[in-house]
Design a protein that fits this description.
Aminopeptidase; 24% helix; 224 residues; single chain
Length: 224
């Protein structure tokens, strides 16, 4: 006697996943409001709001000066997502970087409570960003990138988007024949540490991270 599959397993009702079309592109001056919100969210997550003093004006003046050229100065990749294909835009003809696109299939649906807040002019949603700039290794005799910040909004975490952003920086470094990518991570952020180790990052125990800022910076600058 023939049997039929339970209704939940028939082709008509088998889940096909929830698609997200993603794009990693160079940030533009028009993205400053979203970038500012992302940095503030990152400061909240890292418990560093007492250090947050950036404004949209200061970010615009320093990240997008008239002489700044992507990858040779401060550079930001934005990651965007949309449930429908992302339309062609001026970002796709950027002479410095061809956007990276990928279709992501999620097993479960999810809600973005800030979708309208982070909607770009293309109608897609800003998911996260990575900020990096050149440094130099005299030991290698090559430049590299220093990754200052990598942040993915909370509702998009554990979906592989952080991996996509880090991979984009590594891909650009390889393309430019740079020697390495460096970054630091908060010692309490075990999830980030595990993620970076999974991506092949090595913890360099021999070094301590130092910083001059505020009054100490001014005082050092006046030392004779």
């Amino acid at each position: 006697m023939a049997t039929t599959a339970p209704p939940s397993l028939t082709p008509k009702t088998t889940p096909l996943g929830h698609r997200l079309f993603t794009r990693i592109r160079l940030a533009a001056p028009s993205d400053i409001p979203h970038i500012h919100k992302l940095i503030h969210q990152m400061a909240v997550f890292e418990r560093l709001t007492h250090l947050f003093s950036a404004t949209e004006f200061s970010l615009s003046a320093t990240l997008f000066s008239s002489t700044a050229q992507p990858f040779h100065s401060f550079t930001i990749f934005l990651l965007e997502a949309s449930p429908t294909p992302i339309p062609f835009s001026t970002f796709d003809s950027n002479p410095f970087f061809q956007p990276l696109t990928k279709l992501v299939n999620l097993s479960l649906p999810f809600e973005d409570p800030e979708r309208d807040t982070f909607k770009s002019k293309d109608g897609v949603t800003v998911v996260g960003f990575v900020l990096f700039f050149p440094n130099y290794s005299p030991f290698l005799g090559k430049p590299g990138f220093y990754l200052e910040n990598l942040y993915v909004r909370e509702c998009y975490r554990r979906m592989g988007f952080g991996k996509m952003l880090l991979s984009a920086v590594a891909k650009q470094a390889t393309k430019m024949k740079y020697g390495r990518v460096d970054w630091v991570v908060l010692d309490w952020n075990v999830n980030a540490i595990g993620f970076y180790e999974e991506m092949g990052g090595e913890i360099v125990e021999e070094y301590k991270f130092f910083r001059l800022t505020g009054k100490a910076l001014e005082a050092c600058g006046h030392t004779e």
